[in-house]
């Protein structure tokens, strides 16, 4: 059966081949020389979690395969500023065009006005994309275990770490978690959404969170749609959360909700 993730990877392969032709790796590497140093993504999360508050990675995405249009006509720069005002620790910006309506232009526009560390959220299959992310000012990249072999995940992670970026290793089940724990990045995302079946269930974090050993850190991803869901996941020890849809969809009060989500459970 072809899954939604398979379809995305299929066009990513073509996309990357075209990009490499249009803009050779050497061009990107030249641009790296003038890029500013990465801002510590994992460190920004740690600083908030150390206060026992909730470290929020607030996400910008225009649409998604599971939700359809999220906020058509949204101004990602204005929303990113609201996230920053609300006290987000970091940002996540979808740059995939076909499925999520994002772009590196969006990424760059946000980068130039917001000082928070930024995750470039895309489907990484080739180190070219990692170098490209750094050239555009990314501080962290996503490595999705579900669509990569061990060798690919290792190569992507190694490339990002060498460039001084952090790496969020995304897992969805025990097998992926076991593979991710062998890689040299401490940031372990547990995606509550099954990217193959597009079903979201917070109990994924409750099941996998406790299996993450000391020295590695849990990031609970997807389906965190309310204060209640944060309170629920805090009980499993989660202090770092990646939140998109519920914040994007708000028409007002976005910064206030970010603040509430950041402090819930601490009083
Ligand atoms: O919008 P949500 O349910 O709050 O989820 C955010 C984020 O976790 C989700 O966008 C995501 C997690 N892993 C991904 C991988 C690819 C694309 C998207 C994602």
From TrEMBL:
Sorted UniProt keywords: Amino-acid biosynthesis, Aromatic amino acid biosynthesis, Decarboxylase, Lyase, Tryptophan biosynthesis
Top EC group: lyase
Domain Indole-3-glycerol phosphate synthase, residue spans: 5-256
MF annotations from Gene Ontology: indole-3-glycerol-phosphate synthase activity; phosphoribosylanthranilate isomerase activity
SUPFAM superfamilies: Ribulose-phoshate binding barrel
InterPro entries: Aldolase_TIM, Indole-3-glycerol_P_synth, Indole-3-glycerol_P_synth_dom, Indole-3-GlycerolPSynthase_CS, RibuloseP-bd_barrel
Catalytic activity: 1-(2-carboxyphenylamino)-1-deoxy-D-ribulose 5-phosphate + H(+) = (1S,2R)-1-C-(indol-3-yl)glycerol 3-phosphate + CO2 + H2O
Enzyme Commission number(s) of this protein: 4.1.1.48
PROSITE patterns listed in its UniProt record: IGPS
Gene Ontology terms: biological process: L-tryptophan biosynthetic process
Pathway: Amino-acid biosynthesis; L-tryptophan biosynthesis; L-tryptophan from chorismate: step 4/5
Protein family membership: Belongs to the TrpC family.
The protein's name in its UniProt record: Indole-3-glycerol phosphate synthase
Organism field: Hyphomonas beringensis
Name of the gene: trpC
């Amino acid at each position: 059966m072809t899954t939604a993730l398979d379809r995305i990877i299929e066009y990513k392969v073509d996309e990357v081949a075209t990009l490499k032709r249009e803009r050779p790796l050497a061009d990107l590497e030249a641009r790296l020389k003038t890029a500013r140093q990465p801002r510590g993504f994992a460190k920004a999360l740690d600083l908030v979690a150390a206060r026992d508050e909730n470290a929020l990675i607030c996400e910008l995405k225009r649409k998604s395969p599971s939700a359809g249009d999220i906020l058509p006509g949204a101004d990602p720069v204005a929303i990113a500023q609201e996230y920053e005002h609300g006290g987000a620790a970091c940002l996540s910006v979808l740059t995939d065009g076909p499925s999520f309506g994002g772009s590196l232009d969006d990424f760059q526009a946000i980068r130039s006005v917001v000082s928070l560390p930024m995750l470039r959220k895309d489907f990484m299959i080739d180190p070219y994309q990692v170098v490209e992310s750094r050239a555009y000012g990314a501080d962290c990249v996503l490595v999705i275990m579900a669509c990569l072999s061990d060798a690919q995940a290792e190569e992507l992670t190694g490339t990002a770490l060498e460039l001084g970026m952090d790496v969020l290793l995304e897992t969805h089940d025990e097998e992926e978690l076991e593979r991710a724990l062998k890689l040299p990045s401490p940031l372990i995302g547990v995606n509550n959404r099954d990217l193959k079946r597009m079903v979201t269930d917070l109990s994924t974090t409750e099941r996998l969170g406790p299996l993450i050993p000391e020295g590695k850190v849990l990031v609970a991803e997807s389906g965190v749609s309310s204060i209640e869901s944060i309170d629920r996941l805090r009980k499993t020890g989660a202090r770092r959360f990646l939140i998109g849809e519920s914040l994007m969809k708000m028409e007002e009060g976005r910064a206030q909700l970010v603040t509430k989500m950041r402090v819930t459970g601490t009083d």
